[in-house]
Design a protein that fits this description.
This protein has 226 residues and is an all-alpha fold. Helices cover 66% and strands 0% of the residues.
Length: 226
């Protein structure tokens, strides 16, 4: 495991990222649609280990985000402090997304821990930019797994959002909407009873993007046995 020693300043962390990078891994990442133009090739387990050492540090997170470096932004999502991170900052970061993995890491590590994350997710699904809109659906998918206390009825607006954007054929939006639909349906039998009719309607839709979202969800929800 590459070493990270205190003090954990932005300058020292960025230097450690450069040292820990493996450029030979970048073609592999690029093959999966990850933007590697500002990447070093540092593995996510390394970033998680460093984040555990650093702890919550909002000032460091903001400095790392401003660097615009790929792994620095993923690490920023891990060390940002949800107690002080604001909705305005979340929307600003989401407008900056240029790669699906940074988008999804921010949703998993940070956005789901903010106050009223469902409202944030729905707001992001209404934004026009491809990766910002994906962030809304990625956050819904993450919440479907991690927000155990959310009542069944609270997922109706999320499913309505999936139907609303089903005609958006941009790949990151399609995949995000499909992911959210599948994860909501897999929560439990009651959620599946809400999600399956949506999936079936989309599977019969005239729009190719909607049909893909629906067919894939129907197939997976059937396999779960819900």
């Amino acid at each position: 495991m590459p070493h990270l020693a205190p003090p954990f300043t932005a300058t020292r962390v960025l230097a450690a990222l450069r040292r820990a990078g493996d450029p030979s891994s970048l073609p592999f990442l690029a093959a999966y649609g990850i933007d590697v133009s500002r990447a070093f090739g540092v593995r996510v387990p390394v970033l998680r280990a460093w984040a555990k050492q650093i702890g919550r540090d909002q000032r460091l997170a903001q400095a790392l985000w401003r660097s615009r470096l790929h792994e620095a932004r993923i690490l920023a999502s891990m060390v940002a402090d949800p107690a002080v991170f604001t909705r305005r900052q979340a929307e600003a970061w989401a407008r900056d997304f240029r790669s699906w993995d940074i988008c999804d890491q921010c949703c998993l590590n940070l956005f789901r821990r903010l106050p009223r994350p469902h409202a944030l997710a729905l707001a992001l699904t209404r934004r026009r930019a491809e990766f910002t809109r994906r962030a809304g659906f990625s956050l819904l998918a993450v919440l479907a797994v991690h927000d155990k206390a959310a009542p069944v009825a609270s997922w109706r607006p999320a499913l309505a959002a999936v139907e609303r954007v089903a005609g958006d054929a941009r790949p990151m939006v399609m995949k995000g909407a499909n992911w959210a639909l599948r994860q909501i349906g897999k929560r439990d039998a009651a959620c599946c009873r809400l999600a399956m009719p949506v999936a079936r309607r989309l599977a019969r839709d005239a729009r190719a993007s909607a049909r893909w979202i629906g067919h894939d969800a129907v197939r997976e929800l059937r396999l779960t046995g819900r």
